[in-house]
Design brief:
9 strands; alpha/beta; 38% helix; 4-stranded parallel sheet; 3-stranded antiparallel sheet; Pre-protein croslinking domain of SecA; Rossmann fold; 3 domains; elongated
Length: 215
């Protein structure tokens, strides 16, 4: 009534899409209001147009990621969230602010390394024994022991694993160690249609649209 825009925030893309493209959205459009949908699969221009609408349906995570992306942009023309917003309606507010609020939103750069490097790191991780690494399950971190470092240098035929030129390989090795010795399939993640889906530790829900950072 005031002419100010509204965000309607839901916990998953199914609900956002159902409301924006279904009968509820049709009612708003019949009343002369523009309705936008903001989900992961939308292109940059589609998301930009959606943010200009009177009513925007979105997941809470996508709003958060768009905010983070905007704060990484150097050009004003590449910003999504230019418009000032006045109101937000949260569907399942307890899930959004408590359950989902425990999961950090992380923006990571896409790796350009070939898949062979990851395969080599995976093959190396499969050769390790308990004396080659130290695991902290509470913080979900893993580090190589001195014996593990020497084994890596022998495996990859190098003098110093921690040389600056080997930092990408070192990163791949750490990710391989996490995959083999920290993360558990069907507990931390599951594989569905060749996609890795993260499982929320607190709720057991699948975090659709989320990815492990940088590989």
């Amino acid at each position: 009534l005031s002419g100010e825009s509204v965000h309607i925030v839901t916990v998953n893309e199914y609900l956002a899409t159902r409301e924006a493209e279904g009968p509820i959205g049709d009612i708003f459009r019949f009343l002369g209001l523009s309705v936008g949908l903001n989900i992961k699969t939308k292109s940059f221009q589609e998301k930009k147009d959606a943010y200009k609408c009177d009513i925007l349906y979105s997941t809470n995570s996508e709003l958060g990621f768009d905010y983070l992306r905007d704060n990484m942009e150097m050009e004003l023309s590449n910003l999504l969230m230019k418009k000032e917003y006045s109101y937000a309606i949260l569907d399942e507010v307890d899930s959004i602010l408590i359950d989902e609020g425990r999961t950090p939103l992380i923006i990571s750069n896409k790796t350009r390394q070939g898949i062979n490097l990851y395969r080599d790191a995976d093959r190396f991780a499969k050769t390790l024994k308990e004396q080659h690494y130290i695991v902290d399950l509470e913080s979900k971190t893993i580090e190589s022991t001195e014996e593990g470092i020497k084994k890596a240098e022998f495996f990859f035929q190098m003098d110093n694993l921690y040389d600056n030129k080997n930092y990408i390989l070192l990163h791949c090795i750490k990710n391989a160690l996490k995959a083999h010795f920290i993360f558990e399939k069907n507990k931390d993640y599951l594989v569905e249609k060749d996609q890795v889906l993260i499982i929320d530790h607190f709720t057991g829900r699948i975090l659709h649209g989320r990815q492990f950072s940088d590989g």
